[in-house]
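U., I forgot to send this yesterday:
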Amino acid sequence: ENFQEGLAIAKKGGKYGVINKAGNLIVPFEYEFIGDFQEELAIVRRNGRSGVINKAGNTIVPFEYEFIRDFQEDMAIARKDGDSGVIDKSGNTIVPFEYESIRDFKEGLAIARKDGCDGIIDKVGNIIVPFKKIDCLYLKVGLLMMMEVMNRTLN
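Result:
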């Protein structure tokens, strides 16, 4: 097994759990998926729903999400009841669940889609570039250049 900080994700009977180097069970074999522990937390899936546990197996973020992406800058994009939003490491909603999709944040900004239109939001859901009928793509040179391209296209 691949141990990180003395723990390893293991599989038994088609379910995942966590063991320590001595082989003791730390987190029971009850998960369909366990992500790597990052800063003491792991995104897990049980009964088709995603949540977050700590290294002791305690639920930190309840199992009410269709998916939770990896935490970046202490927040994660998640999907709940068909809509995307952003949560913190305690499961508090940071950006409301009102978007069709939200792409990864770069430089504190992200492309979001709402009602078939793309726009740009910040980490707390403020609209930075209004939602328009235009497809936004990330460019390798960064989000700010993409915003300039959008502004030229829209004007």
